[in-house]
Amino acid sequence: MIATPGGNVQAEYWVGNNFVSVKRTDNTFLAMMTNLHKGVGLSIGWVLLIDTFAGSIVLLSLTGVLLWTELNKRRTAGVVIVSVSLIAAIVCGLI
């Protein structure tokens, strides 16, 4: 079986038969995006590059929030309350 984010190819052979059956499946756009998210069919280099990019985006957003609050106590408290509420809602399965 050969898997790529856009689809897969599966070859099947039974001992004693004189033929091989090959099935090709193309994925929908949503399935392709899911496979890209999971790293299906990607080399380790691409996975490391994507993970590095994702980590840098998270770090950029965290430092952006710190710059926006300017370490002002009222804004920082508001950001903390909203963040904790969102995390609690996600963990409890409300969102």
3D structure, described in words:
The chain is an alpha+beta fold and 95 residues long. The protein has 2 domains: 42 residues, no CATH class; 52 residues. The chain has a 3-stranded antiparallel β-sheet with strand order 1-2-3, with no helix packed on it. Strand 2 and strand 3 form a beta hairpin. The longest helix has 26 residues. It is elongated, with a radius of gyration of 23 Å. The two termini are 36 Å apart. The model has no long low-confidence stretch (mean pLDDT 88).
Question: What does this entry show, briefly?
Answer:
59% of the residues lie in helices and 16% in strands. It has helices at residues 29-38, 44-69, 73-92; strands at 2-4, 7-12, 21-26.
The tally of helices reads 3
Shape, please? Answer: elongated
Number of strands: 3
Order of helices and strands: EEEHHH
Q: What topology, given as strand order, has the largest sheet? A: 1-2-3
**Helix share of residues?**
55-70%
**Main beta sheet strand tally, sense and closure:** 3 strands, antiparallel
Indicate the radius of gyration in whole angstroms.
23 Å
Output mean pLDDT: 88
**Alpha carbon gap, first and last residue:** 36 Å
Keywords:
16% strand; 95 residues; 3 helices; 59% helix; 3 strands; alpha+beta; elongated; three-stranded antiparallel β-sheet
Write the layout of secondary structure elements.
Layout: E1 2-4, E2 7-12, E3 21-26, H1 29-38, H2 44-69, H3 73-92
Antiparallel strand pairs: 1-2, 2-3
